[in-house]
Amino acid sequence: MKEMSPLEKVRHSSAHVLAAAVLRLYPDTQLDIGPPTDSGFYYDFDTDVAFTPEVLEEIEAEMKKIIKENQPFERIEVSREEAKKIISDTGQKQYKLGRLNDIPDEETITFYKNGEFHDLCAGAHVSYTKKIKAFKLLHVAGSYHRGNSENKQLQRIYGTAFQSKNELVDHLERIEEAKKRDHRNIGREMGLFHIDEMVGQGLVLWKPNGAIIRQELEKFITSELTKQGYSQVYTPHIGKLDLFRTSGHFPYYQESQYPPILQRESLAELTEDGFSSTNLENKLDRGELDGHLLRPMNCPMHISIYKSEKRSYRDLPIKLAEFGTVYRWEQSGELNGMTRVRGFTQDDAHLFLREDQLQNEIQGCLGLVKLVFSVLGMNEYRVRVSLRDPDSDKYVGDAEGWNKAEAALKEAVRTLDVDYEEELGEAAFYGPKIDFVVKDVIGREWQLGTVQVDYNLPERFDISYVGADNRDHRPVMIHRAPFGSMERFCGLLIEHFAGNFPTWLAPEQVRILPMNDELLSFAEKSAQEFSKHEIRVSIDRQSAKLGAKIRRAENEKIPHMIIIGKREADEGKVSIRSRNNPDLNGICDLEDCIKQIEVEIRTKALPKKRTEDS
Ligand SMILES: [Zn+2]
Ligand SMILES: [Zn+2]
Asked: pLDDT of 184-216, one tens digit each?
């Protein structure tokens, strides 16, 4: 087992104290397990008592008592028989016996004791309970025993702990800030997206405002791709099973895909044979049965386009790009708004290259990812070179191709001028990759852009080009997606900007607020001028006081408000109130105002003042 850091020890010890407190208050509770997590700890309990916020407070108070008692954590080494006896003496047979059975025979069995509380545990802990200086219980969630939905659902209490009070306070503030920025709430308020149970879990409906953001992002990336010599293609969302058998996606990654779609004839035939589901699966696995698959990746389609013509070394590089929608099966418990979904659109592309072009093209891809991040003000990120785990058998292809691909990526990343780390076992099944892990404004990390080098799919699909020597050669492929997925990326952007998008992305860029109904016709004329310049504009026609109109526009996070009063209208002027660019504020000619906002949009300027009022 990996050794626990001092912080993990504090967190894990807090879990013991939590369980001890629960047992003091509710002695009939059955305990399962309580490991530390990335941001705190949890413990799973089986009890009829509902852990409401009030109950959590009681438990917290009891934990504080236990901490004050300054109980030592004692390690007790026992035989399997003694372990069973302790478990039964403490009345914890229901889950702990099973957990005991998980411990292999050759391993030492230990309990840890603090005060009257014993827990089956390998360690490690702080020396005394008083070493827990700052903790907080956060929330309760249902969790199935061993993560299996056929087992009983337990109550999981989440908490966090830190080595100092200040760190805890900072963390709790970040949690609050994250709640405020939650893309699911902002997405609803701003009319960006909707997820409908009738349509299906994890399938995102982009509403008109969200669609605008997505289109702007797609336009942005497309214009960069054109500069870099990419060609756009469109391909279908489903393809024959044989295609994905060739690529290796089927049957090996079945658990992360929607099940295959079978033809009516095949189903009828199977029904006549009185088939069982095992027998169906075997037939599918062996390739004796045809059907279609919702594509889990776009690559096989793009490879088929490459293969549709004879290619010469002079044609390369060929770069095929598509906003390609793919489908992956995620457990329903894993789904989350736009950031964990079952259907998503990658800003995907596949580059088909000669080996001598590889280095240059990897760098082009990395440059594109960097450009995207800088335009969106995501200046903090780290880079991970994800390599294969040489001891695993989940990868396709031979060592030679892998070695070349890994060497090429490592060489390219050295030119990037950022810190990077190498991680074994994180590669895709067909090749190594470079991943960008971005930090958002509140310090959370998101894995976004990826660039992958692949010697394997060209081999599996047997693609080639004719070289200068007039012989067939195998091209190398790059798979890359700067945003990763449009859904996830938009979810992140919503939280990153807390809904206060830069003007070029804002669904509504300008709102015109006439002071009264008489000014409506001037407001309309002004709106037409904005529209002519392709600025997204609307008029607040409600007969409300100006103050109310301003508040509404502010709540809806409109970047620019144009206020029209009588005096301004008479002089053909407008008054600007801007949240994205306070330098614009004041009275100016309509024409001037349009020009300045146009510049802001064209240069994709970031909001000058960040979101302290959100
Ligand atoms: Zn422990
Ligand atoms: Zn691909």
From this structure: 999 999 999 999 999 999 999 999 999 999 999
Give the domain range for residue 313. 205-243+292-497
Alpha helices in 376-426 (DSSP H): 399-414
Q: Is 593 a catalytic residue?
A: no
Question: One of 145, 433, 536, 577 is an active-site residue; which one?
Answer: 433
Going from the Cα of 13 to the center of ligand 1, the distance in angstroms, rounded, reads: 6
Residues 354-379 have a mean pLDDT of 91
d(CA 250, CA 243): 9
Active site residue 460: no
Name the pLDDT band for 614 (thresholds 50, 70, 90): very low
Q: What is the model's pTM?
A: 0.81
Q: Does some domain include residue 514?
A: yes
Read off the CATH number of the domain in which 419 is found.
3.30.930.10
> Both 145 and 57 in a single domain?
yes
Q: What burial letters (b/e) apply to 270-300, b meaning 16+ CB within 10 Å? A: beeeebeeeebeebbeeeebebbbbbbbbbb
Same domain, 324 and 390: yes
Annotation marks residue 156 as catalytic: no
Kindly state the average pLDDT of the residues 441-461: 87
Cis peptide leading into 475, omega within 30 of 0?
Answer: no
CATH code for the domain of 562: 3.40.50.800
* Residue 90 domain-assigned (yes or no): yes
Three-class secondary structure assignment of 326-356: EECCCCHHHCECCCECCEEEEEEEEEEECHH
State yes or no: pLDDT of 553 exceeds 60.
Answer: yes
Are 485 and 533 members of one domain? no
Structure tokens at 20: 């001890």
- The radius of gyration of the chain from alpha carbons, rounded to an integer in Å, stands at 30
Specify if 313 maps to a domain.
yes
Same domain flag for 302 and 352: yes
Query: For this structure, is 365 an active site residue?
Result: no
Q: Is residue 164 part of a domain?
A: yes
Same domain, 485 and 346: yes
For ligand 1, the distance from its centroid to the CA atom of residue 211, given in whole angstroms, is 49
Q: How many domains does the chain have?
A: 3
Torsion of CA 579, 585, 591, 592, to 10 degrees: -110
200 Cα: distance to centroid of ligand 2 (angstroms) = 25
Mean pLDDT of 454-463: 93
